[in-house]
């Protein structure tokens, strides 16, 4: 079955760094666009960064210059390097795999990993 498993979350002081990983199984990883989303308490889930199957990246304005998304197709894993973390980055971070098929979009989600940035 399809599995997306995030890891690497934790508690860090403002200005610190974390690296999130999303290990996948059960999907043709190299064909999927991948993304990191986050949801803070009381807020809607928002896109943080995405990377296409071809490696093109996109970032939310709030994280540009601080976060870097990448993927390793051989390992079927996606990463999010987060530097210069701010308290407002505190949220549950979710991994998403997205594919447009002939019968419509196909989306898979991980269970989320908590990132807490203390001031």
Give the total of beta strands: 11
The DSSP helix count reads: 0
Class from secondary-structure proportions: mainly beta
Biggest sheet overview: 7 strands, mixed
- Determine the fraction of residues in helical runs and give it as a percent range: under 10%
Net shape: globular
Radius of gyration using CA atoms only: 14 Å
Give the percentage of residues in beta strands.
over 45%
What is the distance, rounded to the nearest whole angstrom, between the alpha carbons of the first and last residues? 40 Å
- Low-pLDDT stretches: none
Order of helices and strands: EEEEEEEEEEE
Mean pLDDT: 97
Question: What would a concise description of this structure say?
Answer:
By secondary structure, the protein is an all-beta fold. The chain is 0% helix and 57% strand. It is built from no helices and eleven strands.
Give a structural overview.
The strands form two sheets. Strands 2, 4, 5, 6, 9, 10 and 11 form a seven-stranded mixed sheet that branches. The N and C termini lie far apart (40 Å). 0% of the residues lie in helices and 57% in strands. The chain is globular. It has strands at residues 3-7, 10-13, 18-25, 33-39, 46-51, 57-59, 67-72, 77-82, 91-101, 104-109, 113-118. With 119 residues, it is an all-beta fold. A hairpin with a 4-residue loop joins β7 (67-72) and β8.
């Amino acid at each position: 079955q399809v599995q997306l498993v995030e890891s690497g979350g934790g508690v860090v002081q403002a200005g610190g760094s974390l690296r999130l990983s999303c290990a996948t199984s059960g999907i043709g990883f190299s064909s999927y666009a991948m993304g990191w989303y986050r949801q803070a308490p009381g807020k809607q889930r928002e896109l943080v960064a995405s990377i296409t199957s071809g490696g093109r990246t996109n970032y939310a304005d709030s994280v540009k210059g601080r976060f870097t998304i990448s993927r390793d197709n051989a390992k079927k894993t996606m990463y999010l390097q987060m530097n210069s973390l701010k308290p407002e980055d505190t949220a549950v971070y979710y991994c998403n795999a997205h594919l447009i098929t002939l019968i419509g979009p196909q989306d898979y989600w991980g269970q989320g990993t908590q990132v807490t940035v203390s001031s």
